[in-house]
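Input (Fatty acid hydroxylase domain-containing protein):
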Amino acid sequence: MDGMMASLAIEAATYVVLMVVFTLLAFVSRGRDAFKWSPELRQSALTNVLMLHIGGLNGVLYLLTIVPLISLYHTVGLPVLPETAWTHVPFVLKALVALLVYDFSMYWVHRWLHTSWLWPAHAVHHSDPELHFLSWSRGHFIEQFVIAACMVFSSTWLGFGIREIFGLALLQGLHQHYVHARLDWNHGFLRHVIVSPQLHRWHHAEVEAAYDKNFASIFPFFDLMFGTYYNPGSAIAVPTGIGNNPDNNVIALILHPFREWGRMLAERKRVSAAAETA
Ligand SMILES: [Zn+2]
Ligand SMILES: [Zn+2]
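Output:
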């Protein structure tokens, strides 16, 4: 119980720090406009926090996911680089290699999440009509499990342990909050090195030319390498969200993939029945 209270206190403090940091960044970017939260934005922010705790994997559940996944990796006997492989490698370089391997894997997992049968689970993250720093918290537990598995498998293979994996997950999580923030920054000469808020906003854009673009989480050069890089300029005014949008209804968001899969199965049945009678 004490552990649970401590965990909730840490999460509450984290939200306060994130709020202060991202409001300051927005102030630098947009001036006093940064302090104006429309009713839609407030509703979206509340939904995203609730989604993290009800429909996603919060810190405690994440811990309960990562630890069993690491055990599963070792129980199955998947390969692990020997510890001696890192003996002469500085820690920063080791962390950079781990982030590169993670992001390369995540690039392909993200492309996979955009294909027909997995899209309903990932669409929950894309459903936010008011993209802002808390939008990263809007993710369905199915998708969050896939992301956690990607982090665990790519890092365990390199010989990383639980503490190192949590360190990477924390770094990656902070960067994800940043790329969803309401900032129109493109990182100038570093725009092909590290994903910017502008680049990721185009990934969420409800604009046909931007569909299935900018899959990389951290390193945009993966998008350049695989032909999915797209940044025509300012993204702050582009609409975001999805077509059949459950908007800010938490229950509808949690049920969304199951409803969509039901609809897709019914459609598949209808098409094959029509083909049989033809
Ligand atoms: Zn996506
Ligand atoms: Zn996103």
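The pocket of zinc ion (ligand 1) is lined by residues 110, 114, 122, 126, 203 (CB under 6 Å).
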